[in-house]
Write a structure and sequence with these properties.
Length: 436
């Protein structure tokens, strides 16, 4: 077999066989396929797509390019959740302690920020001392002991994805449904859990901008999961505007803590409850969604979910005092008010998540290249989102910055993020389409 023939085949829209896909993945792993050929093939996949059968072969081959964890010693059900990436997405910080409190062991492998989207591992590092580089044996022992752990994605799991992703990032081949599906599902299967909940983001702040694309991605991942005998549940959720109000590492940890105290923003709380209810029903811990939501609401109300976050922080070496005193996390020097331009009353008709992410990035919250240091203290707390009635001069975002110049740069982006109208606008639902 020759890679050049496989590039031509895909360019001419021919379906690859299992053997051909396995040839490509083993060639990536042993270095016999150079980056220029892999890049050409990735671009051909982007243009021509892949069938479900090819996507499943690719997922399986990527999954088996490294270690596949066996978590059966933890219990019959071990949960994991993955988001396709968004702005202000701190769901894992609530989901893991909440679901663990409901009796589902949570073994969560998370990533760092990618493109314009934030990463859970970076957010957790805002908690002084919190370790995310725990070896797999310790990770499994911690899930057995306290019912949960969140660690960084290791290079040993689905290593082919790491190599492919690095190239996709620099060859304009990120936004491909089969490539995203294989990337996510291969990592989730390799991570060993058998209750996989996927949050497929849709809108300007996500990789999939339209509902149709997001639904196709969700259906593809569910179908691939079925073929590989690892059931996957997917929910398509809104990422037109940021999730919740806080965007920025420390600020998002604070908002997650508030949510576990029962005081978080409505859309974020709704998302956590919807995904959590899906998990409980799928795991057989509740008969239907209504009952599952009641269980989860009680776990928040009683403080058990928050207690679990405390346990998680302690187990991973972090300082649990951040729960009462957020100033122990990196904090920006200044808070500036970003106000509604002009005069008179109006409605926020659109809020572009990508521009809000860029506002944070220009203040140092995002990476321009791999491995770069980021500023965990800066960010934006939105005071108004789509549908809010506001008046000229009123504050609609508080910008946490380390200099007036940073605020100026962020303001340019925020000006582009907000659009106003005179007519009332409906508040959009965070759940776009449930379980596929
Ligand atoms: N998240 C992933 O893990 N992989 C992708 O390809 C896109 C988002």
């Amino acid at each position: 077999m020759r890679m050049v023939d496989l590039i031509l085949a895909k360019r001419n829209n021919r379906e690859h066989s299992k053997d051909e896909i396995e040839f490509i993945i083993s060639g990536i792993m042993d270095g016999s396929i150079p980056d220029y050929q892999l890049s050409a093939w990735l671009m051909a996949v982007c243009w021509q797509g892949m069938t479900i059968a090819e996507t499943a072969f690719l997922t399986d081959a990527m999954c088996h390019s490294g270690e596949v964890l066996d978590l059966s010693s933890i219990g019959a059900i071990v949960g994991d959740k993955h988001s396709t990436g968004g702005v202000g997405d701190k769901t894992t910080l609530v989901f893991v302690p909440l679901l663990a409190a409901a009796g589902i062991p949570m073994a969560k492998l998370s990533g760092r920020g990618l493109g314009h989207t934030g990463g859970t591992i970076d957010k957790l590092e805002a908690i002084p001392g919190f370790r995310t580089d725990i070896p797999i044996s310790e990770f499994i022992a911690q899930v057995k002991e306290i019912g949960m752990a969140i660690v960084g994605q290791t290079q040993d799991l689905a290593p082919a994805d790491g190599k492919i992703y690095a190239l996709r990032d620099v060859t304009g081949t990120v936004e491909s449904i089969p490539l995203i599906a294989a990337s996510i599902v291969s990592k989730k299967i390799a991570a060993g859990s058998n209750l996989i909940i996927l949050d497929v983001k849709c809108g300007r702040g996500a990789f999939m901008e339209t509902l149709e694309q997001a639904q196709t991605l969700a259906r593809t991942m569910v179908e691939v999961g079925k073929r590989l005998k690892r059931p996957v549940t997917a929910v398509v959720t809104d990422m037109e505007q940021p999730l919740g109000n806080a965007v920025g590492h420390t600020l998002e940890v604070m908002e997650a803590i508030e949510t576990l105290k029962g005081r978080g923003p409505d859309d974020f709380r709704e998302l956590c409850l919807t995904l959590g209810a899906e998990a409980l029903v799928t795991a057989g811990k509740a008969e239907h969604e209504k009952q599952a939501r009641e269980i989860l609401e009680e776990l928040i109300h009683s403080g058990k979910a928050l207690d679990n976050l405390r346990k998680l922080i302690i187990a991973q070496g972090g300082n649990p005092a951040v729960i009462e005193d957020p100033s122990l996390m990196p904090t920006a020097k200044y808070q500036f008010n970003f106000v509604v331009p002009g005069k008179g009353e109006k409605y926020i008709s659109h809020l572009d998540g990508r521009f809000v992410a860029e506002a944070c990035k220009v203040m140092g919250a995002g990476r321009s290249k791999k491995g770069e240091q980021i500023d965990l203290s800066v960010g934006v707390v939105l005071q108004g989102k789509i549908g809010a009635r506001v008046s000229g001069g009123e504050t609609i975002a508080i910008v946490h910055a380390n200099s007036p110049e940073q605020f100026e740069a962020a303001s340019v982006k925020l000006n582009e993020a907000f659009t106003f109208t005179d007519a009332p606008v409906a508040v959009p639902s965070v759940i776009r389409s449930c379980v596929v």
